[in-house]
TrEMBL record:
Function: Part of the spliceosome which catalyzes two sequential transesterification reactions, first the excision of the non-coding intron from pre-mRNA and then the ligation of the coding exons to form the mature mRNA. Plays a role in stabilizing the structure of the spliceosome catalytic core and docking of the branch helix into the active site, producing 5'-exon and lariat intron-3'-intermediates.
Family of this protein: Belongs to the CWC16 family. YJU2 subfamily.
Compositionally biased spans, kind Basic and acidic residues: 203-236
Keywords for the protein's UniProt record, in alphabetical order: Metal-binding, mRNA processing, mRNA splicing, Nucleus, Spliceosome, Zinc
Superkingdom of the source species: Eukaryota
Organism: Neurospora intermedia
Main location as per UniProt: nucleus
Region of interest (Disordered), residue spans: 184-326
Known partners and oligomeric status: Component of the spliceosome. Present in the activated B complex, the catalytically activated B* complex which catalyzes the branching, the catalytic step 1 C complex catalyzing the exon ligation, and the postcatalytic P complex containing the ligated exons (mRNA) and the excised lariat intron.
Protein's name in the database: Splicing factor YJU2
Length: 326
């Protein structure tokens, strides 16, 4: 098996290099031709067999460079390809004028949406183009002149309205500045509150309603906090009595009961009519105010923190703790 890259060649013993002469071929005349690999720049249809070849199809083409074909110094190239079905020759060239390609022979370019409506512009001659430009410029100048004549009075009115508006804005700004300066001076000299000075003047109905709602909310919040503080004081009073060792409400109730029994006995000694009247009075008071009766029967809840004693689980499991050495 021979090497893929041959570095040395075999020369036979009878090889004579003087017998090998150089043959010069005549220079190629006509346009320069190269074999290139290209992709179809547009979709086309073969005029011989009707085969469609879409944009991007790859071909082995011959690239021809004509010597005498130029556009504003730009070289024009011509390409020769063959149909993929019938092998008919198709020729197209570059078109620098329109920045596109043009089919010369063998095929017809398919219709593309972006090329619709451009046929008239492409077929327009130089004279037609000049006439169109002059006509457009004349129309534009005429419209400008008419607009200037028509808008002269409107511009004057607009300037007058702008001047009046600027004067009104300047007056309002001066008034606001003087008012702010007066309020600052009054607050600085006499310690007067700006809100009391304003007194709600200049406020709209919506702002007045919002201010009134804020005041009502502030009053409701103040009452709620006051009630909470009073409730907290009532809850802290029984806890202080327990700490000081004072008798609780049930004891007092019992003492009150003993006193009432003694008085009832004394009243019994006085007469049965007074005892019955006292019992009737107590029954009526209990019926009229059952909440007070329930309050005297049950002690008030205490919110004092109670520390629970920890259980010795090691003793339950039979674990003996080591005594520290003295």
């Amino acid at each position: 098996m021979s090497e893929r890259k041959v570095l040395t060649k075999y020369y036979p013993p009878d090889f004579d290099p003087s017998l090998v002469g150089r043959s010069r071929q005549p220079k190629q005349t006509g346009p320069k031709v190269q074999t290139v690999r290209l992709m179809a720049p547009f979709s086309l249809r073969c005029s011989t067999c009707g085969e469609y070849m879409y944009k991007g199809r790859k071909f082995n083409a011959r690239k021809e460079t004509p010597v005498d074909e130029r556009y504003l110094g730009i070289q024009i190239y011509r390409f020769y390809i063959r149909c993929t079905r019938c092998s008919a020759e198709i020729v197209f060239r570059t078109d620098p004028k329109n920045q596109d390609y043009a089919v010369e022979k063998g095929a017809k370019r398919n219709t593309e949406p972006w090329r619709r409506g451009l046929e008239g512009e492409l077929e327009e001659t130089d004279e037609q183009r000049l006439d169109r430009i002059e006509r457009e410029m004349a129309d534009e100048n005429g419209e400008i002149a008419q607009a200037e004549e028509r808008n002269a009075m409107a511009e004057l009115e607009q300037k007058t309205a702008d001047a009046k508006r600027e004067m009104a804005v300047a007056d309002a700004l001066d008034e606001i500045r003087s008012r702010n300066a007066r309020l600052e001076k009054a607050q600085r000299e006499g310690g007067v509150d700006i809100e009391s000075v304003l007194g709600g003047r200049g406020l709209s109905e919506e702002e007045e309603r919002r201010r009134r709602e804020e005041e009502e909310d502030a009053e409701a919040a103040r009452k709620a906090f006051e009630f909470a503080r009073l409730q907290q004081k009532l809850e802290e009073t029984p806890a202080e009595e327990e700490v000081l060792g004072l008798p609780s409400i049930p004891g007092a109730a019992a003492a009150t009961g003993e006193g009432s029994s003694g008085s009832s006995s004394s009243a019994a000694g006085v007469g049965p009519s007074s005892a019955s009247s006292t019992a009737a009075t107590a029954t009526a008071a209990t019926a009229s105010n059952p909440a007070s009766a329930a309050a005297t029967d049950m002690p008030p809840p205490s919110f004092k923190r109670q520390v629970k004693k920890k259980k010795d689980h090691s003793a339950l499991l039979g674990i003996k703790k080591k005594q520290p050495l003295v």
